[in-house]
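Q: For a teaching session next week I want to show students how multiple molecules come together into a single three-dimensional assembly. I've collected the sequence lines for a complex. Could you give me the predicted C-alpha cells for the whole thing so I can convert them for display?
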Amino acid sequence: MKLIDCDVHAQPTEPMLVEYLGPAVRRSLERYGRRTPRITEWYPRVRNAGMRVDAWPGKPGHIWGSDPETTRAQLLDEFGVDFAVLEVLSGQDCYDDADFAADWNFAINQWQLERWLEFDERFLGTIAVPHEYPDLAVAEIERRAADPRFVAVLMPSSAMEPLGSRKYWPIYEAATAHGRPIAFHTGGYADYRGAGRPSFYLEYHVSNGIVMQSQLAGMVAGGMFKAIPGVRAVMTECGVAWAAALRWALDSAWELMRDDMPALERRPSEYLRDHVWFTTQPIEEPADAEHLVYAISQAQLEDRLLFATDYPHWDFDSPTQALPRALPPDLRRAILCENALALYELPRQPAATA
Amino acid sequence: MKVIVAPVSEFPPGARRIVDVGGRSIGVFHVGERFFGIRNRCPHQGGPLCQGHILGDVVADGPGSARVSDELLRIACPWHGWEYDLDTGQSFMGGSQPRVRSYGVRLEPGRVLAAEAKAGLVPGPYQAETFPVRVEDDYVVMEV
Amino acid sequence: MDRIDCDVHVAPESYRTLYPYLSDYWRDYVEEAGVRLNGLALAYPPGAPTSGGLPPSSYEELRRRVLEPAAPRYAVLNCLTAFETHRSAYFAAAVASAVNDWLREEFLSRDERLRASLVVSGLSTEDAVAEIERVGDDHGFVQVLLPARGDLPRGNKTAHALFAAACERSLQVGLHAWGRPGNAPTPSGFTTSYLEDYVGNQQVAQAQLLSFVTEGVFNRFPGLKVLLIECGFAWLPPLLWRLDKDWRGVWREVPWVDRPPSEYVREHFRATTAPAHLPKDEPGAVTQLLEMLGDAGSLLTYSSDYPHEHGDGLATLLDQLGEDDRAAVLAGNAAALYQLS
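A: Of course. Below is the structure for the complete assembly, covering every listed component.
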C-alpha cells in the first residue's frame, strides 16, 4: 500500500437520497424541505461553488462528487489511491426532527454502501449518524457495524452542544465498542459565539481551524478521553499546524488549574497524544516548509497525521504535490499510508483481484 | 516549432482548445481580439490550468469598492483558483491598487518578479509557461 | 530592567466608586435595580489561581502593589469593568464615561508614568465615537479598549467610525481578552469549565484578527495598530499560514486585501507577552516558535497583566531572545507603539 486518502467527499443529490427515504419523511421533505439553513448559502464559496471546476461529471443527474465513476477516474486511478475514506456531509447540519434525521442518515449510509462501497473495493465508508439523537445514532452504528467497509463514525465539527458534551458520549462509546474511530469533520451549523459571525467566506473558512480548537479543548476538559478509554478522534479538514499552540496552552493552564479538572488524571497533551489524529488537508503552507515540520513535531503528530485530498473541493490537496519536499521520507510515508493503515486496520496488501 | 491549432474561422472569440504537443498539454484561448497559449499545468499543484475560468483583474480602492478591469486577463486554476496573467504566465495574487507602485523589473521564468506594466500587483511565486499564438493565413498558429 | 508594562489592571471596588462620575439618575438606577459589580467573576473567578486577587482600586493601592515594587518606566492601565455592563446602550455609555473620568482623576492625573486605555460603549458605535471625542485628546489615554468577545466581529463595517475617531487622535486599539459573559468561544455555546474558557480567549482573538484584516480596517486606517492583550501569541504562525493560503484562492471576495494578509498582521498587530503559554521544558520548541514567528522581537510587548497569573512563560520567552530583542520586547516596542519617550 502506498496511498490512503482519508477524506473524500461523495455528495449525493437530493433525489439520490430520496430513493432510500420512508414515505412519511419523503412527504415531509417534499412539502417543507430541510429545516437547517445551509452554511453554503451564508458563506458562498467564491471559487466555483467550492468545487474543482474539472470535477463536474458532465452526466445528467450528477453533480461534483456524486458519480463514483468520475471519482474513481479522477482520484483513485489518476493518483494510485489504494483506499479512499468517504465522508458524506449531507447530514452534518441536520437539525430536523428525530424521525427525519434517522431516515436521512440511513439513506446516506445506504447510498454509500450500494453506490460506492459495492462499486469499487477501494472505497471505504464512514457511518453518518443523527447525532442530535444519540439513541438513534447508536442504532445506526449498530446497523452498519458488521460491515468492515465502514471504517469510522462521522460527526460534524459543530453541533447543538459542544462535541465533548456527555450528550454525545453514547455515540462515541458505540463507535469505540465496534472498533471505529470518530471522524469529526468540519461542518455543521456553527454559531460564532465568542467573536460573532464572520462576514466573508475567507474569514469563515479560516475559522474552521479555530472552531475545532474550541471543540478539542472542550473534549479534553469534559473528560471523554478518560471516560471512554479506547476512544479515537480524527479531526478532519480543519488544519494541523495549530495543534501545538493549543497543546501548550492546555498544558500550561492545567498546571495552574488542575483542581478545576477533576476528570483529568493526566496532562491534556497526554490525552491528545493518545486519542487524537488529524487529516492533513488543508495542509498549511508556510513560506519555509521546514516550519511545518516543526509544527508537526511540536505536537508529536508524526504518527497521527493522515493524508487527505478533500476531493472534489476547490482546496483539494494533490497527493503528489501538497506535502512539502522538506518532509523526511519516513514521515512522508507515515502520512501518506502507514498511519491510516494502523488507525483503520487496513490490509497491507490489496485483496487478490478476480 | 510551429503548431497549427485550427482555422481561424473555427476559433471564435471566447473559444478555447487544449492541444497536445509532444506530450505537453497546452491551452489556446481566443479572448477579444487576441490569442494566448499557456501550459495546461498549474505550477502550484499540477492542476489542469486551462480548464479554469478567465477573469478580468479587480481594482479595489477600499473595502466594499471593487470594479473589474478588462485590461489584465487572468486564468484561474480550476483547483485552488491561483491566477496567471494570460499574456506573461506570471501568477498574481490579489487585485490591483489604483496607485502606481512600480517595481520596474523584467520577467524571467520561475522567478518572483513584477511586470513594469502591471502596476500595483503582487506577483506570486510561480510562472506558467506561455506560448506565442498568432494568426497566419487564416490559421491560428502557435510557437512551441 | 527598563520595562513598559502594557497591561496592568485596575478596577473600582463597587459602583459607589463611580458615583462621582454618574448622574443622579444613574446613581438611583444602580441602587434601585441592584446593579452590582462582581469583579468580573466569570473572567477572573476570585478563587482561581490565575486571577491573583482583585485589581487595585485606587492610586495608593496601585503604587504600593505595582509601581513601587516593579518600577516600570510606564504602565498602561486597563479597566475591564465596562466589559460586563448589561444591554442597555444608555447605561453602557454612562458607565464607560464614568470609568474614563475615574481613570483620569484617580490615576492619570497623579503619576506621569501612567497611561490608560479609554473604554467605550460596546453597544453603540455612535456612543463609542462620542466618548473618544470627549476624552480621547487627554494625553494619558493611548488606546481604545475593546473586549475580544462580542456580538459582531470587531472589524465589521459598523465599527469603522470608531477606528476613524481613534486614528484622528493617534489612539491605537487594545483588543483585550474576555468580554460580556455568555460569549463563550465554542460554536455551541457555554464552556463547562473555566480552563476551557480561559484558553478560549486565544480562539476568540484569532477570529478577531481575521475580521480586522478581511474587513479592510487597515486599508481604511493605515495608521492604526491593534495590541492583542492577554490573548497569547504562540497561535499566530499557523493561523497566518492558513490565512495566506486561503487568501491566495479567494482574495476576490475581499479584493481590497491586496497583499498577503500576514503582511497586514505584521504591520498592524502587536501582542502582549502575558499569557505566554510556552512549553516548559522544551527550549528547542521555543526556539522554533520564535523562528516561526519571525519577528517576535518587534511583535511582542511586555505585560505583567497584574494581578493575573499565568505561570512563568515570560522567563521562558526572554531566555531565548537576544539582548536587542529583549530590550525591544520589554520597552522599545511599547514606546514606539504609544510614542512614549
